[in-house]
């Protein structure tokens, strides 16, 4: 299983469409982490990200805020999404693998992410 997390300096990046890197974790059939790698998106964003995740054989995405279009594209790619998360990347992956990470109904429905803006319980960057 491949779990991708929107990545920024070891923390979950809060605006999926502007994610510059993902950390990809490989878990075995027993739910143990066997590998991780951080990959750049090579400057691609928004519409290209679902394709990048699919190319990297992603099964699950953990991220912060995400828009309706991205959710639709990820669903079409067969990628399960856990949005609305914040904090350290690896802690979120461990929470997912132990069944403790909740699916939240958090969606950004705009593209104006200025200072002081928030989506749900966290701030977008």
3D architecture notes:
The chain starts with a strand and ends with a strand. It has a single domain, classed as Dinitrogenase iron-molybdenum cofactor biosynthesis domain (Nucleotidyltransferase, domain 5), CATH 3.30.420. Mean pLDDT is 87; it is low at 110-125. With 125 residues, it is α/β, with parallel strands linked by helices. The longest helix has 9 residues, at 68-76. Strands 1, 2, 3, 4, 5 and 6 form a 6-stranded mixed β-sheet that branches. A two-stranded antiparallel ribbon has the order 7-8. Strand 5, helix 2 (68-76) and strand 6 form a beta-alpha-beta unit. The chain contains 3 helices and 8 strands, in the order ββββαβαβαββ.
CATH architecture: 2-Layer Sandwich
| Number of DSSP strand runs | 8
Overall residue-averaged pLDDT value: 87
Estimate nothing, just give the exact number of structural domains: 1
**What is the helix/strand order?**
EEEEHEHEHEE
Overall, the morphology is globular
Structural class: alpha/beta
Low-confidence stretches: 110-125
For this structure, the CATH topology is Nucleotidyltransferase, domain 5
CATH class: Alpha Beta
What's the total helix number?
3
Instruction: Evaluate the radius of gyration.
Output: 13 Å
CATH superfamily: Dinitrogenase iron-molybdenum cofactor biosynthesis domain
Largest sheet entry: 6 strands, mixed
Strand content: 25-35%
**What's the N-to-C terminus distance?**
29 Å
> What is the helix fraction of residues, given as a range?
10-25%
């Amino acid at each position: 299983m491949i779990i991708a997390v929107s990545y920024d300096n070891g923390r979950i990046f809060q605006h999926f469409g502007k994610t510059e890197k993902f950390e990809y974790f490989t878990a075995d059939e027993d739910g143990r982490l066997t590998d991780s790698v951080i990959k750049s998106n090579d400057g691609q964003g928004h519409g290209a990200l679902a394709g990048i995740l699919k190319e990297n054989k992603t099964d699950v995405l953990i991220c912060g805020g995400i828009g309706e279009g991205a959710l639709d594209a990820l669903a079409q790619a067969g990628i399960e999404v856990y949005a609305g998360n914040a904090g350290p990347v690896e802690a979120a992956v461990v929470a997912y693998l132990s069944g403790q990470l909740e699916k939240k109904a958090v969606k950004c429905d705009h593209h104006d992410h200025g200072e002081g803006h928030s989506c749900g319980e966290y701030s977008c960057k």
